[in-house]
């Protein structure tokens, strides 16, 4: 704006107030302050170029060489600016860098935030257009969300505490595109409770399928990241899982999920018998003591053993791991007899991922789960309810392994 131009402050104030009251962007297209932002950015880059063209540059023959137009996306809309050039192309402006088309980091944060809440690139693009009058392509959105990748890798390899009181291990299943075809992927999650009673997702791993061999590598990774001991591990009834845990953490007590066992049992019970069977099964896992539970299991076998031998045989075969929780007080029993704690976490993740069909890659899957996990963990600020009583009981049961700081 030249000195000869008369600046219309009254007109600017009127237009700005109208746009402010209507919620329109003041800096975006047709915004009242857009010319000021454009003038400021261009003046700043001119000053950067003047500083760059020092005596040495000029002696080498470098000079100003016109301007290049650029559309710059900001959190307040898209503006058109002209960036100055030099003849030798050695000028690298800092306020608006070369090939930079998105100015405000706040816009990137908004995009990553929306992506972390499960919005598709198409929906994000439409929202950005509506809110900021800015067009952003799917490729640009992907590049922005890819900035999360180093954070994901850093988080996956972060050091862990030496001891965790209770750890739940379970897997989720997704579809991922690979070489033009859609394949199944298994995401292994490990949720732990530390000595202060606070929840933390200790690890997140991707594999083609759930298996004891891969769980062994997961547990080894946890050990390498600093975990020396796990008091109690809660798992599903995957074959070889408990043995994998014993290999890495030999002193860990393993509790197989009762709910998983019940679900698997009902698959082999006729629908007409399920209600009666469950009525006879409840006294087994709701018993006061292990002795009483075993007596109830004998009675269950006497009534249903001939009709459903596979079901009863499964309870007997897995009884050692199913009955671990009976040795603990009720507060600890409620936490470990089922993997509901981590399944509840998985339900929150699925609320975010349910709109996705097949992910474009394993990392695309991990990016979204990582971001949604960060949102979920914001609520994990307090210890579990009545944790002081629970941890006191654990310290008595495991006196040599859990030492409380008083």
UniProtKB/TrEMBL annotation:
Residues 55-90 are annotated as: Disordered. The keyword tRNA processing does not apply. The keyword Ligase does not apply. Signal peptide: none annotated. Keywords: DNA recombination, DNA-binding, Transposable element, Transposition. InterPro entries: Transposase_mutator. Required for the transposition of the insertion element. NCBIfam families: transpos_IS256. Belongs to the transposase mutator family. This is Mutator family transposase.
């Amino acid at each position: 704006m030249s000195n000869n131009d008369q600046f219309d402050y009254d007109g600017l104030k009127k237009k700005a107030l109208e746009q402010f009251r209507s919620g329109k962007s003041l800096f975006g297209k047709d915004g009242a302050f857009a010319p000021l932002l454009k003038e400021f950015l261009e003046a700043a880059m001119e000053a950067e170029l003047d500083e760059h063209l020092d005596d040495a540059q000029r002696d080498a023959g470098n000079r100003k060489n016109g301007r290049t137009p650029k559309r710059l996306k900001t959190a307040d809309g898209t503006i058109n600016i002209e960036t100055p050039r030099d003849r030798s192309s050695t000028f690298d402006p800092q306020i608006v860098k070369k090939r930079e088309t998105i100015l405000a980091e706040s816009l990137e944060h908004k995009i990553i935030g929306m992506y972390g809440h499960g919005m598709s690139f198409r929906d994000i693009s439409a929202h950005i257009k509506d809110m900021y009058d800015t067009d952003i392509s799917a490729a640009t959105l992907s590049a922005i969300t890819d900035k999360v990748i180093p954070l994901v890798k850093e988080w996956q390899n972060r050091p862990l505490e030496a001891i965790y009181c209770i750890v739940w291990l379970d897997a989720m299943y997704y579809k991922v595109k690979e070489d033009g075809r859609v394949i199944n992927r298994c995401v292994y999650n490990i949720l732990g409770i530390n000595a202060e009673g606070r929840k933390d997702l200790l690890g997140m791993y991707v594999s083609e399928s759930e298996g004891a061999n891969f769980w062994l590598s997961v547990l080894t990774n946890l050990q390498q990241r600093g975990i020396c001991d796990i008091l109690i591990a809660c798992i599903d009834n995957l074959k070889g899982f408990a043995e994998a845990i014993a290999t890495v953490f030999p002193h860990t007590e393993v509790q197989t999920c009762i709910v998983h066992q019940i679900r698997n049992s009902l698959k082999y019970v006729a629908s007409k018998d399920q209600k009666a069977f469950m009525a006879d099964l409840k006294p087994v896992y709701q018993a006061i003591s292990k002795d009483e539970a075993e007596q109830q299991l004998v009675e269950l076998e006497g009534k249903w053993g001939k009709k459903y031998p596979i079901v009863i045989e499964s309870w007997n075969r897995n009884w050692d791991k199913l009955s671990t929780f009976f040795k603990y007080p009720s507060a600890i029993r409620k936490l470990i007899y089922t993997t509901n704690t981590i399944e509840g976490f998985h339900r929150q993740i699925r609320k975010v991922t349910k709109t996705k069909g097949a992910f474009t890659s394993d990392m695309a899957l991990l990016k979204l789960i990582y971001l949604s996990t960060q949102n979920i963990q914001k609520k994990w600020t307090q210890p579990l309810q009545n944790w002081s009583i629970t941890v006191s009981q654990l310290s008595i049961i495991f006196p040599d392994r859990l030492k409380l700081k008083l």
